[in-house]
């Protein structure tokens, strides 16, 4: 009896979460996959886990920031985040509005526009201080071998 219930539960989960079974358009499924990456990035910030943060980054990453274009390897980006995370405690990394996510008709490219508030608490000789930042960015993704890879990002910081 318990085995039968588990089978029914498993079948129900397949119907709930498998887009093709429910008739969810592939674009909606792809948008949900990209949103899941955004949510994983949030968790990685709070955990200060640079490895988790770059898990979806392409081997070569294009970064647009401060009026410059930078090509950076995944490993160099990981090192930057590891350094950034040292001594940091994230108090907030919260969307100020829902991310805008678009996927190409063939499902191989996507982009996400994000606006969020980041509050970081850092410890120094004078004690603890918090830094608040509002930032927005546009991230570009490619689907390669069935996996979404973060290939580019352009960031702005509200002044």
Radius of gyration: 19 Å
Give the DSSP E fraction (strand runs of 2 or more residues): over 45%
Structural class: alpha+beta
Chain oligomer state: single chain
The CATH topology corresponds to Nuclear Transport Factor 2, Chain: A
CATH level-1 class: Alpha Beta
Instruction: Estimate nothing, just give the exact number of structural domains.
Output: 1
Overall mean confidence score, pLDDT: 86
Largest sheet: 7 strands, mixed
Low-confidence stretches: 1-21
Structure summary, number of beta strands:
7
Please tally the helical runs, counting DSSP H or I stretches of 4 or more residues.
Answer: 5
Give the % helix.
25-40%
Polypeptide structure, described:
This protein has one domain (26-157): Nuclear Transport Factor 2, Chain: A. 36% of the residues lie in helices and 45% in strands. It has five helices and seven strands. The protein has helices spanning 2-17, 19-22, 26-47, 50-53, 74-85, and strands at residues 57-65, 68-73, 88-95, 100-103, 109-124, 127-144, 147-157. Strand 1 (57-65) and strand 2 (68-73) form a beta hairpin. The chain is globular, with a radius of gyration of 19 Å.
What's this model, at a glance?
With 159 residues, the chain is of the alpha+beta class. The chain contains five helices and seven strands.
Helices and strands in order, then pairings?
Elements lengths: L1 H16 L1 H4 L3 H22 L2 H4 L3 E9 L2 E6 H12 L2 E8 L4 E4 L5 E16 L2 E18 L2 E11 L2
Parallel strand pairs: 1-7
Antiparallel strand pairs: 1-2, 3-5, 4-5, 5-6, 6-7
Which descriptors apply to this entry?
159 residues; alpha+beta; Nuclear Transport Factor 2, Chain: A; seven-stranded mixed beta sheet; 7 strands; 36% helix
């Amino acid at each position: 009896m318990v085995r039968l219930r588990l089978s029914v539960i498993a079948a129900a989960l397949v119907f709930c979460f498998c887009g093709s079974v429910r008739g969810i358009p592939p674009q909606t499924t792809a948008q949900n996959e990209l949103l899941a990456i955004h949510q994983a990035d949030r968790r990685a910030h709070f955990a200060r886990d640079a490895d988790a943060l770059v898990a979806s980054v392409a081997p070569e990453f294009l970064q647009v920031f401060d009026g410059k274009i930078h090509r950076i390897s995944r490993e160099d980006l990981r090192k930057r985040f590891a350094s950034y995370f040292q001594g940091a405690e994230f108090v907030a990394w919260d969307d100020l509005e829902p991310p805008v996510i678009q996927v190409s008709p063939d499902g191989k490219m996507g982009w996400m526009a994000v606006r969020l508030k980041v509050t970081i608490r850092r410890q120094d000789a004078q004690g603890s201080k918090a830094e608040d930042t509002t930032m927005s960015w546009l991230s570009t993704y490619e689907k390669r071998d069935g996996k979404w890879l973060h290939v580019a990002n352009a960031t702005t910081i509200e002044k």
